[in-house]
């Protein structure tokens, strides 16, 4: 593909990101801004102009799916040679095997699953899935077993066992790997970095082969991956990274977004380009997604026309919420449409059970992303295995055991595990009501039937049920976001400012998955372990509700001459002898200009009713402005100073009535 065709259809920001000669280069790409398109076209553009040879390009991603998509896009651009595109782990493993083979060393076996090995260890402190997560976090942060307890305490890690016991289990895992002669994926990254750092010939060979480095989703890089990247790079400046600090949602798993946010400081002379255009979502969706981050935090500008105003619905119970979502999904599914145009997003795996049951009952096909079916989740598998140990007994005798397991997980802050066990306990009680003589062995089959684990609708055209984390990188025309309650959003164990900020970013990611329709909901009561628990709405619903109110005002019919032209005409007609009229016209002119700058309807900035009240009162300080009905903290932060400047300049002798 020639140069002009590579640049066709790009906006000014995207064009600069593709063509800027700067090295190193950091591209800050907001949600829906076309980052993959920009990254692949930059590789192709550099190949076309001769500043990069495709066979010497290494493009790094975090998932095989992302690598496959990027490779397909690069192939479609018609490059003479194919760049190497892969995950950190895949590229490192290929290099290590070559390194060992060239030196006559045996290649160790690759451990595909930490959980399987951990399950075989006696006396482990945690369930295998939870222990694997702690080991992965420690390895990502380059924390050995002897320093785990201290580091985990410093990071406020919430686990269901004393940290010292987790450290002992971590050490036992490392010893068992060594005894078996196997390495895991974390070892692959660490050993590749060690080889590059200690063997100049190996480092020179790899740096010759991969001269041009590109990294996607750079906000998700962890310290171990960054160490390997720097070992690949050496002292060369040819590095291009793409990421979005507003989508940094994996700190809990060891990622460190500061590699992105401090890129210019860490790489003196680096060029930074920002992409703020959003081509995915309507202005209404973006307005809410920006509100959850706070005023001035999100700079995304919609490049689509107006859409529906998002809805926020409060339900009496979690059962009502699940039924409401199912009803809304049916309404959003006209004849001939596909079910996979819709997704239901939840914060935790444990919230999925009730939604699965409601979808099965309504005969709506669905599939899960970000969580295995209930039967495959570690907490449920461990519980069923425990119930099956020993002689057969009536299920009724095991109900209290299931409740106790869920309570232990909740007390330890293991929210996902507690939710999964609560779902299992609820299904066990359903079976007991249906068949009071059922043995414990019948529970596995009942769970599979109740949530459709082996039923139809798991593939093909189906509504997606997705965790917030797993939704990243995906998009749907219609998105239902469920369970917006304190304790879920933000999650209960997010107690530090850093963790709370990540929870805001996580909700921002969830909201920006919607293209056209966004539906938010929460329940005032949830049934947890057979008892009703009162719930509070998420604190993030306050700014979201304010933002939605502005959108609702903007959606009302406006006078024929609404907008910038009307405001300017009114200001020109106003006279010095009519201060109230002059102030109203000045406020309308300010509002229209503010709306034009961010490409939203004027009433999104300030509704007609609120603007009229500001003109009537003419407040001259923040306290007086805050008394105007409808002006909340969000509006004060975003526009308070500008509003007061307009009032002071144009109010004249007008008195503000009290």
Automatic annotation (TrEMBL):
Regions annotated as coiled coil: none
GO molecular function, one term: hydrolase activity
Key words of the record: ATP-binding, Helicase, Hydrolase, Isomerase, Nucleotide-binding
CDD domains recorded: DEXQc_UvrD
Residues in HRDC domain copies: 577-657
Biological-process GO terms, alphabetical: recombinational repair
Domain UvrD-like helicase ATP-binding span(s) in chain numbering: 8-282
Residue ranges annotated for the UvrD-like helicase C-terminal domain, each copy included: 279-658
Binding site for ATP: 29-36
Catalytic activity: Couples ATP hydrolysis with the unwinding of duplex DNA by translocating in the 3'-5' direction; ATP + H2O = ADP + phosphate + H(+)
Keyword Repeat: no
EC class of the enzyme, as a word: isomerase
EC assignment: 5.6.2.4
Pfam families: HRDC (PF00570), UvrD-helicase (PF00580), UvrD_C (PF13361)
Family indicated by similarity: Belongs to the helicase family. UvrD subfamily.
Protein name (database record): DNA 3'-5' helicase
Source organism per UniProt: Iamia majanohamensis
């Amino acid at each position: 593909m020639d140069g002009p065709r590579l640049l066709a259809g790009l906006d000014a920001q995207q064009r600069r990101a593709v063509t800027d000669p700067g090295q190193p280069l950091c591209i800050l790409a907001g949600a829906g801004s076309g980052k993959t398109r920009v990254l692949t076209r930059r590789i192709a553009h550099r190949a076309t102009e001769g500043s990069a040879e495709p066979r010497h390009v290494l493009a790094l991603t975090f998932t095989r799916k992302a690598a496959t998509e990027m490779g397909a896009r690069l192939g479609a651009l018609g490059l003479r040679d194919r760049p190497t595109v892969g995950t950190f782990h895949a590229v490192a493993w290929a290099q290590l095997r070559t390194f060992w083979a060239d030196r006559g060393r045996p290649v160790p076996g690759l451990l595909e699953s930490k959980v399987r090995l951990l399950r075989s260890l006696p006396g482990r402190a945690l369930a295998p899935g939870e222990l694997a997560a702690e080991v992965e976090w420690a390895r990502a942060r380059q924390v050995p077993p002897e320093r785990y307890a201290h580091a985990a305490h410093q990071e406020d890690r919430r686990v269901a066992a004393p940290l010292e016991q987790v450290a002992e289990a971590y050490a036992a895992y490392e010893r068992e790997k060594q005894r078996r002669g196997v390495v895991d994926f974390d070892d692959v990254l660490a050993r590749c970095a060690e080889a590059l750092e200690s063997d100049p010939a190996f480092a020179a060979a790899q740096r010759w082969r991969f001269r041009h480095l590109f990294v996607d989703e750079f906000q998700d890089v962890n310290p171990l991956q960054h160490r390997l990247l720097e070992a690949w790079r050496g002292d060369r400046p040819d590095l291009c990274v793409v990421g979005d600090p507003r989508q940094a949602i994996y700190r809990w798993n060891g990622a460190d977004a500061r590699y992105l946010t401090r890129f210019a400081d860490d790489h003196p002379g680096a060029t930074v380009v920002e992409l703020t255009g959003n081509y995915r979502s309507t202005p209404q969706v973006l307005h809410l997604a920006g509100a959850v981050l706070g005023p001035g935090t999100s700079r995304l500008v919609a490049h689509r026309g107006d859409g529906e105003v998002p809805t926020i619905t409060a339900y009496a119970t979690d059962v009502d919420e699940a039924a409401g979502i199912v009803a809304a999904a049916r309404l959003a599914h006209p004849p001939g449409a596909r079910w996979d145009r819709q997704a239901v997003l939840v914060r935790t795996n444990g919230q999925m059970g009730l939604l699965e049951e409601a979808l099965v009952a309504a005969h709506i096909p669905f599939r899960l992303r970000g969580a295995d079916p209930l039967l495959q989740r570690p907490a449920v598998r461990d519980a069923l295995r425990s119930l099956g140990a020993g002689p057969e007994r009536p299920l009724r005798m095991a109900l209290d055991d299931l409740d106790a397991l869920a309570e232990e997980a909740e007390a330890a802050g293991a929210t996902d595990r507690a939710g999964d066990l609560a779902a299992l306990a609820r299904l066990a009680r359903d079976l007991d009501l249906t068949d009071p003589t059922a043995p414990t062995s019948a529970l596995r089959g009942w769970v599979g039937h109740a949530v459709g684990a082996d039923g139809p609708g798991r593939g093909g055209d189906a509504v997606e049920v997705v965790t917030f984390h797993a939704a990243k990188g995906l998009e749907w025309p219609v998105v239902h976001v469920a369970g917006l309650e304190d304790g879920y959003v933000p999650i209960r164990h997010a107690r530090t400012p850093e963790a709370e900020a990540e929870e805001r970013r996580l909700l921002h990611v969830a909201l920006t998955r919607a293209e056209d329709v966004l539906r938010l909901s929460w329940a005032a009561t949830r049934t947890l372990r057979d008892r009703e628990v009162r719930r509070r709405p998420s604190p993030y619903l306050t700014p979201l509700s304010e933002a939605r109110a502005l959108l609702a005002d903007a959606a009302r019919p406006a006078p024929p001459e609404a907008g910038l032209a009307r405001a300017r005409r009114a200001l020109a007609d106003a006279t010095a002898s009519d201060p109230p009229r002059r102030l109203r016209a000045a406020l309308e002119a300010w509002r229209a200009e503010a709306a034009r700058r961010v490409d939203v309807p004027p009433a999104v900035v300030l509704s007609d009713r609120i603007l009229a009240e500001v003109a009537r009162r003419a407040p001259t300080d923040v306290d007086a402005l805050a008394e105007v009905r409808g002006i909340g903290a969000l509006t004060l932060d975003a526009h308070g100073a500008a509003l007061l400047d307009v009032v002071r300049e144009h109010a004249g002798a007008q008195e503000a009535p009290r």
